[in-house]
Fold this protein.
Amino acid sequence: MKKLINAPENVVQEMLAGMVMAHPEYVRKLEGYQCLVNAQAPVAGKVGLVSGGGSGHEPAHAGFIGRGMLDAACVGNVFSSPTPDHFLEAAKAVDSGAGVLMVIKNYSGDLMNSQMAEEMAEFEGVKVTRVIVDDDVAVKNSTYTTGRRGIAGTVFVHKIAGAKAAQGASLDEVKAVAEKTVANVRSMGMALSPCIVPIAGKANFSLAEDEMEIGMGIHGEPGITRSKIAPADEIVSALMEKILDDIPFVAGDEVAVMVNGLGATPLMELYIVNRKVAEICAARGISIYRTFVGEYMTALEMAGASISVLRLDPELKALLDAPADAIAFKQC
Amino acid sequence: MKKLINAPENVVQEMLAGMVMAHPEYVRKLEGYQCLVNAQAPVAGKVGLVSGGGSGHEPAHAGFIGRGMLDAACVGNVFSSPTPDHFLEAAKAVDSGAGVLMVIKNYSGDLMNSQMAEEMAEFEGVKVTRVIVDDDVAVKNSTYTTGRRGIAGTVFVHKIAGAKAAQGASLDEVKAVAEKTVANVRSMGMALSPCIVPIAGKANFSLAEDEMEIGMGIHGEPGITRSKIAPADEIVSALMEKILDDIPFVAGDEVAVMVNGLGATPLMELYIVNRKVAEICAARGISIYRTFVGEYMTALEMAGASISVLRLDPELKALLDAPADAIAFKQC
Amino acid sequence: MEQLTSQDFQCLIAGFAANVIARRDELNELDGKLGDADFGTSIAGGCNALQALLPELVGLAPGMVLGKSGMTLVKSMGGASGPLFGTIFMRAGKELGNQTEAGVAELARMFNASLEGVKTLGKSDVGDKTLIDALAPAAQALSAAAARGATLAEALADACAAAGQGVEATKAMIANRGRAHYVGERGIGHQDAGATAIHLLFKVFADYAA
Amino acid sequence: MEQLTSQDFQCLIAGFAANVIARRDELNELDGKLGDADFGTSIAGGCNALQALLPELVGLAPGMVLGKSGMTLVKSMGGASGPLFGTIFMRAGKELGNQTEAGVAELARMFNASLEGVKTLGKSDVGDKTLIDALAPAAQALSAAAARGATLAEALADACAAAGQGVEATKAMIANRGRAHYVGERGIGHQDAGATAIHLLFKVFADYAA
Ligand SMILES: Nc1ncnc2c1ncn2[C@@H]1O[C@H](COP(=O)(O)OP(=O)(O)O)[C@@H](O)[C@H]1O
Ligand SMILES: Nc1ncnc2c1ncn2[C@@H]1O[C@H](COP(=O)(O)OP(=O)(O)O)[C@@H](O)[C@H]1O
Ligand SMILES: [Mg+2]
Ligand SMILES: [Mg+2]
Ligand SMILES: [Mg+2]
Ligand SMILES: [Mg+2]
């Protein structure tokens, strides 16, 4: 394992310290908890927006703390949900009395820990509710299973719910627009190489020198198919077909696109991916309103990318366009 | 070679196409040239700011096109300087009559190609001048050699010269503040793993599973020492000693810090690096005015990081603080 | 021994913690076949916290011993297994209430309460290839043992054997819950890590009472 | 043959291009020992552009044939070697001016002009472990040949041999210019890639005139 770290068991604490040192104007640490809180929070009258999950997905989620986005993020160990007390303390720290919305990715661990936190918050007199993001079409949805995973589409939920909350909307209104976003966003990813969880010290799966995995999750969970590596255009076509056919997206739709790097894949390649994404949308008569290319929801140093497509309506467009000033998501 | 690309010989063209498709409100392509130009350029009365160099360093340099930063960027093949005609056309495209400053990193190729462009521009009636960035203290400076390399400190030059130009300063004034920035910025990097130039198809150097190289350049040029991998804090101490002792930076100095990822290194590790950088500055009585952590000047998928420190004065502080709205560098 | 006292539960918790910590890598590897290879790290972390908690448990009623242990697991583990294992101990402790001892009948009630708690929280049931597939047969074995008036040693041996068979049974299942469900059919042949830890828990109980 | 005509220069350029393209990987490997392993790719790219240019060169004066070739290299290569190799051809062509032929005396003048151009642009000199260490001895050999009235074949054979020795000599040098200077002493023992290409250029000339 080659990493710029000290002791593997300290990576999360040291990362959080480094973040606060880098961005004191954006975040402060919640003493005793693996939580970063907006330096300005709580904002009087504003609904608090909290996200969280395992670490290793940076800049998600703490990098999205800032004006017009998140008020707090709880950070579990690498790829492992934080415990309920962290969620609870984060919610308490950002509640101004208007209530708190937690944006949770759909994994058993995140679901259960945040649910416990929600129940605990009730006792503490904080109104907390949750929205569950499940945008990954690689996994079949079904009421009999945990359902689809939450991946990079979550960032759209942060942006849009964050903008709504910044406008002074009520908890119900913020939750409603977050749910609308979830209902309209679909994503899928693929990986070229694994990543190494520091404390494990070795790769969490292996791929041969000429192999890739389509549908790979952001923790290295298996995807749909493992196959010989193909040209970028072919890979993008395969992902886009799954994504667009899911809602489905149809001619005339206006969408936002996010091409997200999983960690080791250079920006050069993400733009090559975006070129094909744009071509496919054009060919299908889907018009792209905004495009985001970069690293938003990573899996440590995994090589690969995900594509997210969000169907827009006038409300979502306006909220997506609203200014934001988060550590790793700025819109002037 | 595992990459999300199509034909290796098309990576630059396809990347540029993908960038324009993603960010039409920021950039347009200069027909027939590997150049992206600010969609708003030329701005009447404003000095044009052009940068460029080999590709593979994304977001540098085209990602820094935008209000308050660059007006154009020329993109050579991977790790290879663009030819003079690209620099020339970029300069012509952004000149409003106020002249053009080219920000060039100190490599033989970039120097010579941009010099030729400067001479050609004279014939075409465009006032072009250059500033050469050589911030990498890994390489000894000497008038008998090409001198120090230009690396991530270049981004500070873009930001500060860009802000100055946006204020309507003259070509001489913009050049002067760019040179002041160069005089006050020092950087150094290290690598944990090599990268693969697509057209070469194999790594440009190799490091054993327990080796790192201190002082590695952003094209995989050799550094100062190859040694067993060490804890992050030790590595950072070694880099910071070289950097801070160079000008030297002394107690009472106010600085800006950039912790720059070379490609594959996760943001988590960059923040762990920043934690130690901040500690060292504090211990030396150097106060950090602003910190930037992320990928600014990469080397494809190389694992590693560089640290840049810029000594500030009131003018540089004000220009660093000025708003910017570039594709990959936004300050609200 | 027919009744477990507070001190017994403290010993059992210490034993469970030590056993789990020793098998950390093995549990990670099992999770690696179906999920994200962190279950061993996660539950070993929880067990370290349990070890640190032990001094605070001295003198508490058995229900509180279990309840506090559960809360400690919830707070220290994270992941999917944190709330679930925490719930197992918390519900068992709650079920016992203020009683000062637990015999076969109590244990049967306690672990059936644990089972209900896990099912509700995890929205899962028998056959989903989770720890429930070890916990449910163990709880059932305890109920059966209580009904026929078995000794504590017999009851816990039965529960342990049932849990072991449950672990075996998970090999043939396709997961619906947790990260394991992403592997779908590719998971056939591999046993569930959470179920394996439940078997370990009952093995510690059985060995203690034997 | 004692004088090189426009057609000869066209053949020489075609020959140089074909040889370089064939040795692309070899040149990359040499650059890889000292620099960034792209010199072969870069100059082969320039030579592809030269091949495409050939039809346009028909009927041009020798000076223009060289000048246009140089400009094509500058526009197509990039890197450090683009301006330098471009300059070599451009300066040689400029030195020849409107003359319709070039003999030994002209070639000596031409390549000495190239040398001066490279030194000025590259801010470099003999001993810096660059292409100059092949170009300078070759130009000197041509001057000596011209002074003693040697034949074209002899003169170019001398130039080629001198360039070859120059390449050998770069092995012992420590680079001061270009990317090779970053390797410093670690570069000892490796020959310079740019110098190797210069040797190739003179080999093409020598073989043609032999
Ligand atoms: N919904 C659920 N219901 C019951 N048990 C579950 C559920 N989800 C996961 N588990 C159990 O938890 C174990 C995985 O725990 P852990 O690795 O900590 O979770 P994760 O990595 O998925 O967050 C599985 O082996 C399974 O027994
Ligand atoms: N300043 C210089 N003066 C003369 N020759 C130089 C100079 N810099 C580089 N070279 C030559 O150029 C060759 C490298 O060319 P190339 O690989 O295209 O450049 P780079 O990769 O450094 O941009 C070297 O082998 C050397 O002969
Ligand atoms: Mg996990
Ligand atoms: Mg090069
Ligand atoms: Mg797991
Ligand atoms: Mg080179």
Chains C and D do not touch (no CB pair under 8 Å). Chain C is about 70% helix and 0% strand. The first helix of chain C runs from residue 6 to 22.
